[in-house]
Write a structure and sequence with these properties.
Rossmann fold; 9 helices
């Protein structure tokens, strides 16, 4: 059976990936910080889908956690989902610089290092995929969150181009850029989302379906749902200064 490695696997989009991939017959390696919740999630998936579920308790903002994750993805991982992430409440100068650096560690360094660790094995085997969960905030960058998600998009596209000839299209790297998704993400960041209209919210299972479909098609940047495709498309024709002003009230709220 193929094996998927998912970071941030116990909640939100990460948990949705775990359920979908288990139902598709993938064995799973699940990474999160909360051991009790991680083991409970693994047991539920193992019992329901009869797949092998391995757990790795690790904090990707620490060197110890990153090193443990790197070591594991080097062996027999067919699909890597770099999903772990979070938001800081407040604008740039209101957030402690230590919290901003932690965000860069998780959103950028972890994505880079795990992608770098997993790809050689995939290329050797001639198959595999990497999904780096970014955000539509990447296209309306404001603050460290949007900048880190923009980095993930550009990084994914660059790596996909770098390996294209070596992999003959059989190893793929993709950035996934959802908008507002019903998860614990905003609650954890203590964000008031009451002003977001209902039609802007996405279902996490629909996001995962779109991501896996786009990965199979060789898409490098996946934007789930027509409304967000339209938003991203329009943003490319709006001056960046205006985009930044428009995103001042919402840019940090996207997943």
């Amino acid at each position: 059976m193929p094996t998927a490695f998912i970071t941030g696997a116990t909640a939100g989009i990460g948990a949705a990936f775990a359920r979908r991939l288990a139902s598709d017959g993938f064995d799973l390696v699940l990474l999160a910080r909360d051991t009790e919740r991680l083991e409970r999630t693994a047991a539920e998936l193992r019992g329901k889908y009869a797949v092998r579920t391995e757990t790795l308790t690790a904090d990707l903002s620490t060197e110890e956690g990153l090193a443990a994750a790197e070591e594991r993805v080097r062996t027999d991982v067919d699909l890597l989902v770099n999903n772990a992430g979070f938001a800081n409440k407040g604008v740039f100068l209101d957030v402690p610089v230590s919290d901003e650096l932690t965000m860069l560690k998780v959103h950028c360094e972890a994505v880079l290092r795990l992608t770098h660790a997993v790809l050689p094995g995939m290329l050797e085997r001639g198959r595999g995929g990497v999904i780096n969960v970014s955000s539509v905030a990447a296209f309306a960058t404001r603050g460290t969150y949007g900048a880190s998600k923009a980095w993930a998009v550009n990084f994914s596209q660059g790596v996909a181009a770098d390996i294209r000839n070596r992999s003959h299209g059989k190893v793929r790297v993709m950035a996934l850029c959802p908008g507002f998704v019903h998860t614990e993400f905003h609650e954890r960041a203590q964000m008031d989302m009451s002003d977001v209209p209902g039609f802007m919210w996405l279902d996490k299972d629909d996001v995962v379906d779109a991501a896996l479909r786009d990965l199979r098609r060789g898409v490098q940047v996946s934007v789930p749902s027509p409304q967000y495709k339209a938003i991203v498309g329009v943003s490319r024709f709006i001056p960046r200064g205006l985009v930044a002003r428009m995103s001042s009230t919402t840019g940090r709220k996207y997943k």
